[in-house]
């Protein structure tokens, strides 16, 4: 649950998906999350808009997405955080690695009540790849709200 002390808001969520997620070539994919490790404040819903973390009260929050993309040595990879379906607030871009790509994208941001954030990826290897399920780290999406 969200707690308030002197008008500061504290809460957070850690969500994940327990299966591999297909990532098509040259198409932006927003990851979905079917399970929750913790949701202290109704930040996430496992049955509706499962790719979103929604901030219930205004405040300063750290949001982070981590995942592992399957191996392929062609093209580039991109991971990003998107605010309210339009504004990219963090991204990582790199040439294809020689092996799996393990990545984390993090941002500290002041959110207004009702804002939502999504975790997306893109790749252009020439074929489909996967976000590979890995217990405790892939794919995982989290938010920790520190207060206003």
List descriptors:
six-stranded antiparallel β-sheet, 148 residues, mainly beta, five-stranded antiparallel β-sheet
Outline of this structure?
The protein is mainly beta and 148 residues long. It is built from no helices and 13 strands. The strands form three sheets. Strands 1, 2, 5, 7, 10 and 13 form a six-stranded antiparallel β-sheet that branches. Strands 4, 6, 8, 9 and 11 form a five-stranded antiparallel β-sheet that branches.
Q: Roughly what fraction of the amino acids lie in strands?
A: over 45%
How many DSSP helices?
A: 0
Classify the helix fraction into a percent range.
under 10%
User: Any idea what the radius of gyration is?
Assistant: 15 Å
> CA-to-CA gap between the ends?
16 Å
Unreliable stretches, pLDDT < 50, 5 or more residues? none
Principal-axes shape call: globular
Order of SSEs: EEEEEEEEEEEEE
Largest sheet: 6 strands, antiparallel
Q: Average the pLDDT over all residues and give the rounded result.
A: 91
Q: Structural class of the helix and strand makeup?
A: mainly beta
Query: What is the count of β-strands?
Result: 13
Task: Write up this protein.
By secondary structure, the chain is mostly beta strands. Helix content is 0%, strand content 57%. The chain is built from no helices and 13 strands. It has strands at 3-5, 8-16, 21-23, 29-30, 35-40, 52-54, 59-69, 76-83, 87-95, 101-111, 116-123, 129-131, 140-147. The strands form 3 sheets. Strands 1, 2, 5, 7, 10 and 13 form a 6-stranded antiparallel β-sheet that branches. Strands 4, 6, 8, 9 and 11 form a 5-stranded antiparallel β-sheet that branches. It has a two-stranded antiparallel sheet with strand order 3-12. β8 (76-83) and β9 form a beta hairpin. The chain is globular and about 40 Å long. The protein starts with a strand and ends with a strand. The model has no long low-confidence stretch (mean pLDDT 91).
């Amino acid at each position: 649950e969200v707690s308030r002390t002197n008008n500061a808001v504290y809460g957070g969520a850690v969500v994940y998906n327990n299966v591999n997620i297909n990532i098509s070539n040259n198409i932006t994919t927003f990851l979905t999350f079917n399970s929750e490790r913790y949701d202290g404040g109704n930040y996430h819903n496992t049955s509706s808009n499962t790719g979103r973390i929604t901030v219930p009260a205004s405040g300063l929050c750290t949001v982070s997405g981590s995942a592992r993309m399957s191996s392929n040595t062609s093209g580039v990879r991109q991971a990003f955080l998107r605010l309210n379906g339009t504004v990219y607030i963090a991204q990582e871009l790199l040439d294809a690695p020689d092996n799996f790509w393990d990545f984390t994208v993090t941002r500290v941001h002041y959110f207004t009540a009702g804002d939502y954030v999504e975790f997306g990826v893109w790749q252009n290897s020439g074929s489909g790849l996967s976000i590979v399920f890995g217990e405790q780290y892939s794919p995982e999406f989290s938010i920790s709200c520190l207060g206003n």
